[in-house]
Design a protein that fits this description.
By secondary structure, the chain is mainly α. It has a single domain (about 20-100), classed as Orthogonal Bundle (Cytochrome Bc1 Complex, Chain D, domain 2). The protein has six helices and two strands, in the order H-H-H-E-E-H-H-H. Strands 1-2 form a two-stranded antiparallel ribbon. Helix 2 (about 25-30) crosses helix 6 (about 90-100), helix 4 crosses helix 5 and helix 4 runs antiparallel to helix 6 (about 90-100). The termini are far apart. The structure holds heme C.
């Protein structure tokens, strides 16, 4: 009896932690407005100052979320992106990831 209860409790824990935050692409679009000026431009070169920006459209949501977390936590350093990610919640990142993943390549 005891082991059944323990197993059930374990199962619950696993189930609740395994569910990733579901990204909402529609919410992600609104949250990505400030990003489009840099990441949504043709040829992926920002005009002023001229520098290359990574292409995000069609990128995997998981990759985008991981990159944003790394910027937020300072593991990846880039002044602009550190600021962009600073105030994002996990849900914001999931939404933004869903939006870019669904965008045409
Ligand atoms: C002012 C221009 C600018 C804005 C605005 C901007 N980014 Fe970026 N972003 C960059 C640049 C430049 C890089 C490359 C930085 C580096 O080398 O780490 C980058 C990198 C990234 C990466 C990593 C891509 C990769 O291939 O590793 C992600 C994800 C990203 N940005 C998402 C966003 C999101 C989401 C927003 C809006 C909330 C945003 N960016 C706003 C310029 C910008």
């Amino acid at each position: 009896m005891r082991s059944i209860l323990a197993a059930a409790a374990c199962g619950l824990l696993v189930a609740s932690s395994a569910v990733p935050a579901a990204g909402d692409a529609t919410a992600g679009r609104a949250k990505s407005e400030p990003c489009l000026g840099c990441h949504g431009i043709p040829s992926y070169n920002n005009t002023y100052p001229t520098y290359h920006v990574p292409k995000l459209s069609g990128q995997h949501a998981d990759y985008i979320v991981a990159a944003l977390k790394a910027y937020r936590d300072g593991q990846r350093k880039h002044a602009t992106m550190n600021v962009q990610a600073m105030s994002m919640s996990e849900q914001d990142m999931a939404d933004i990831g869903a939006f870019w993943q669904g965008m045409e390549k």
